[in-house]
Amino acid sequence: LLGGSAVWNRLFRREIFQKLRFPKNRTNDDEFVALRAYALCQKVVYLPDVTYFYRIRPESITTSAVSRRTLDQIKNAKENMDFIKKKFPDLFPCAEGRYYSALIYVTYLASKAKKTKEVVQIRKELHRELALVKQRVFRNPYVSWKHKIVSIFL
Known about the structure:
mainly alpha
């Protein structure tokens, strides 16, 4: 929950994905899927070894310009927060912190993006959302101080 949940650096039993599918037409979809996959697992093992080389390409989704699709990161974090609230309520403050961090991060990306009509609209939506939760951001122990400070300037 705290560091994000990619699936490119994890192995799951095939049976997990007989019950679970990636959402269609959504970026950052592993954030949505990984959490649900963990909930279906009987056992999770962590290996600290580096076994994957991650290459970022300039034309990848990760490095592309801010657009409506960038908001999927917030949508996934919000849906994960709702999932956690129902299935694992003790973890809710952590999931809520992850949502706030995603909101702050995407708002920061939008603030640095080239000003287009779409980006201006996205910024307005993000600022409205951030204004609604700003006080809770500062009370949540799972939001890093870095994100809290950045949220002041956003």
